[in-house]
């Protein structure tokens, strides 16, 4: 059996927003899997805000995607040929498969996923990296205590929506910041105490009104002016969890930093960055906790699924920066 | 006995640098001290970078100095009349006396100081708030571990010079950042491994050269571009201790924030603000530790003493933002 694989590769490093010249579509014949390897038919590809950063040739937490390399992506799929007894044909797996419709990988680099617990898309969302990011960011980095006041930006996204629901499950007051009335309405529907539409006016003033006593934990997915709005509304001893800065990922120059950072001093507060990969050995704990909340109905896992196969990747990637998604953005591969 | 007291009061809130119209000199007759009170002849007034912030009518960790109020200052002096058995005439005290040559205060609001341990000026410096700021900032906020690499800005100042020497005493590698060759030479004289003169070129590049493995603890007294230079040179797990931002205290508009703050994410690092007053119940621990190092010769306490009495205050205050001091800046009152 030979299988033809189609991939999206990085043709050229983008300046600002990636465009059509950033990518090239390539095709290759895959051999049969070797010992310990599996052939995976990719079903779902995770579209992540962090992807833009992987395209820059700068020192970061992972090496950049090289010119001519398949675009890095986490994905799920079905094993269609196997030389690994632990990943039999027909089983479902998750791994760093890249933007490709078929891949051969070492079975040991994949995680088995159980569709009886949740859909493949949810294994990329609430039970995947975004869920783990929410869980360890909120509890370990943010040291959340029951009953505190939590504000999360990018609240209707894959990470933010889990952050807010995890905090609600701990009896916290939770305010979400998101873009547009539909997202805000959804946040209130899933239990957020209030939602702020950052497109409608002054977030700083809105926070002051909604959180007069100040924020205990601010979980930041967006950076920019919203981070400054949160800094202006901290409570003493506040923790800012720095998860992302989607507002600036496509900026051509380094955007302005948080002007109000000295609020950290006034409020004896901290701002701490983290990367979810550092918690890999504790992912089973995070998955178990979130799966239990999904099972009990206390946590809604939502995905926005876009079609179009791997050819749809360039547009889907732009979509995440336009905020087209509610919950996790996933690209399906037919 | 009546005593005439002369004070410097806030006449007008400054915009940018304070000037002569900011202040007024007033005189008043003091009555005899009442029960529990003492009359203090002020000898030394502490000139602190934080003073500029106290002049702004904005929400902060302490209320602003009111128009017409005596300028807030920590000072030391000699008790010249006492209705408190615990602070007899002739004893030395420290307290929030303000910029005045004589004050009547409740004895309970003062600390006794022992000139046999160190001079009054040192009780305002290495054994005063700056020393406590260095000690609790470095060990509690910065969680310094033996042998780590420490970078401190404002290194030749009252706080910075103690930070560096405390870290050296714990076997750390210490780089100081200061303004001018004399200060840098002094830092190397008191044991810093290297000093960077920020007036001579690119601090980011200099740090990269001196600290190729990255910074574990960056103790920031200055903010601005030097904070960005440190952010660009962190080691994984680094802690930034946010103590001050002297570079911006006189800015008329909120200055730019740290553009490279997302380095906190890449390096899994934190930036934490603190105020030394929160450690008041542990000051005896800090004083004992620093006094022991002074006694053994492991720590040099240095002060820059300027004269001129309380009339010299406006100029002395400008001086701290010009960096005229090496070590603690103290104004003497004849």
Give a nutshell description of this structure.
With 334 residues, chain A is of the alpha/beta class. Chain A has helices at 51-54, 120-124, 129-141, 158-169, 181-189, 203-210, 224-231, 263-266, 283-296, 313-322, and strands at 3-10, 23-30, 37-46, 75-82, 92-95, 102-106, 111-113, 149-153, 173-178, 194-197, 215-220, 234-242, 270-273, 303-306, 328-332.
Polypeptide structure, described:
Two copies of one chain form a homodimer. The first copy, chain A, has 334 residues and is of the alpha/beta class. The first copy, chain A, has ten helices and 15 strands. In chain A, the strands form three sheets. In chain A, strands 3, 4, 5, 6, 7, 14 and 15 form a seven-stranded mixed beta sheet that branches. Chain A has a six-stranded parallel beta sheet with strand order 10-9-8-11-12-13, with helices on both faces. Chain A has a two-stranded antiparallel sheet with strand order 1-2. In chain A, α5 links the parallel β9 and β10 (194-197). In chain A, α3 (129-141) packs across α4 (158-169). The radius of gyration of chain A is 20 Å and the shape is globular. The interface between A and B is medium-sized, with 33 and 33 residues. β13 (270-273) of chain A pairs antiparallel with β13 (270-273) of chain B, so a sheet runs across the interface.
């Amino acid at each position: 059996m030979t299988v033809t694989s189609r991939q999206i590769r990085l043709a050229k490093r983008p300046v600002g927003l990636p465009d059509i010249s950033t990518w090239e579509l390539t095709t290759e014949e895959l051999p049969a899997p070797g010992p310990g390897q599996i052939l995976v038919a990719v079903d779902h590809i995770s579209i992540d805000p962090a992807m833009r950063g992987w395209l820059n040739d700068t020192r970061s937490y992972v090496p950049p995607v090289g010119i001519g390399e398949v675009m890095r992506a986490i994905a799920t799929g079905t094993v269609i040929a196997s030389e690994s007894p632990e990943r039999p044909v027909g089983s479902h797996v998750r791994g760093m498969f890249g933007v490709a419709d078929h891949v051969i990988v070492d079975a040991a680099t994949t995680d088995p996923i159980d569709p009886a617990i949740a859909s493949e898309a949810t294994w990329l969302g609430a039970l995947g990296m975004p869920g783990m990011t929410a869980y360890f960011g909120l509890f370990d980095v943010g040291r959340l205590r029951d009953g505190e006041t939590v504000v999360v930006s990018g609240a209707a996204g894959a990470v933010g929506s889990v952050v807010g629901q995890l905090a609600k499950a701990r009896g916290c007051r939770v305010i979400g910041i998101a873009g547009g009335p539909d997202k805000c309405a959804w946040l209130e529907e899933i239990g957020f105490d209030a939602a702020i539409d950052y497109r409608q006016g002054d977030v700083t003033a809105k926070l002051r009104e909604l959180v007069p006593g100040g924020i205990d934990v601010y979980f930041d997915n967006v950076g920019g002016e919203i981070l400054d709005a949160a800094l202006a509304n901290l409570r003493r001893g506040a923790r800012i969890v720095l998860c992302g800065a989607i507002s600036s990922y496509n900026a051509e120059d380094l955007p302005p930093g948080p002007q109000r950072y000295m609020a950290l001093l006034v409020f004896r507060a901290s701002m701490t960055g983290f990367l979810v990969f550092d918690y890999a050995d504790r992912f089973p704990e995070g998955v178990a906790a979130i799966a239990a909340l999904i099972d009990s109905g206390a946590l809604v896992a939502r995905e926005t699924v876009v079609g179009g196969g791997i050819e749809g990747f360039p547009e889907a990637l732009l979509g995440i920066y336009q905020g087209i998604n509610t919950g996790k953005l996933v690209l399906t591969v037919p």
